[in-house]
Write a structure and sequence with these properties.
The protein is α/β, with parallel strands linked by helices. It contains five helices and twelve strands. It has three domains: about 70 residues; about 70 residues, Ubiquitin-like (UB roll) (Roll), CATH 3.10.20; about 110 residues, Rossmann fold. The N and C termini lie far apart (about 160 Å).
Length: about 325
Amino acid sequence: MTRRTSGNHRKRGAASSRHHLLELNVRTASQQRQRRRKAEWVLGKIFATLVVLVLVAVGLRIGAQRFFYQNTDYSLHHLNAHLDGVITQEELVTMTGFEEGKNLLSLDLDQANKKLSALPEVMTGSVSLEREIPDTITVKLSRRIPVFLLVASGDTNEAFIPGKSFLCDTEGILMQPSRLNPEFLNLPILRGVDVGTAQPGSHLENDRLDVALALRQVLSELPEESFKIRSVDVSKEYAAVVTDSSNARYTFGTKDLRGQMERLKLLLAHCQETGRPIDTANLMVERNTPVTFVMTAENPLPKITPVPTPKKSVHRSTHH
C-alpha cells in the first residue's frame, strides 16, 4: 500500500508540474502576443503619423508653390540699387540674376551677397540685400575710397587706365577698376612700389607702401588749400619725396614723421607770411632745415631769412 501511494504521489506531482509549466508557457505566449500587438499598435500609430506629416508637408509645399512661387503677385518689378559707382545696374542683374519678372522668393540673396562682397572695390561688410514683399529687392553697398594711383617703376604713363591701373585705399587694399571715375584723375601718384605680383582685392604687404600711407595720414592734417599731395616717390628705402600741387618737393625720412610734420608746419607758416614759394625742402634734417625757394621776377635773388621758432631755427639756401 505504501509503495503505491508513494508512486501515485510522484505521478500526481509530475502531472502538477507539467500542468504548471503548461500554464506558464500559455501565460508567456499570451504576454508575448500582447507585447507584439502593443508594439504593432505603436508602430502603426507612428507610421500613420508620419504619413500624415508627409501629406501635410506635400500639401504645404504644393500650396506654397501655388500661392508664393507661382503667384505673379510675387514677381520682381522693382530693383532699388545703391551701388556707389562700383558697377552698373545692368552688371548687377547679370551678376545676381535679379531679372524683372522672376519670382521674388526664388532669388538667392545669400549667393548674391557673396558675389558682390568679393568685388575688390566693395568695402568689407558693406553689402546689404533686402527682399521686400511683394515685388521689390533693395541692394546697397559702399565702395573703397582710393587714395593713391600706383605707377610701376619705369612707367611714364601716369594716367588711369581702366582694367590695368592699380589703386589702393588707406588699408593698402588694391583695386583695379574697369571703368574711369572722374575722381581717379585727381589721385596722388605713388611711385616706387612693386606691383608685379599684386592681386586686386588683396592687401599689398610692402614696407614702402606702408610708409607712403603713413605719410599721407600725417599730411592729411594740413588744410588742402595750403598743401595738396600731387605725388609720392618711395623708390629710396630711407626717404620719401612728396611733390605738392605747386611742384614743390619735400623730402621726408621714414622715421619720426610726426617731428617732420611739425617742421613742415613752421615752414609753411613762414612762407605764408613772406609770400615766398618753396622749391625744395629736406625735412629729414632736424635743425637748420635745408630749403630752397622759387626765383621769381619780383624776387630774383631771395635773401636767406630764418624761420621764427622758439626752439629750432630753419636755415634756407637760395635756389640756383
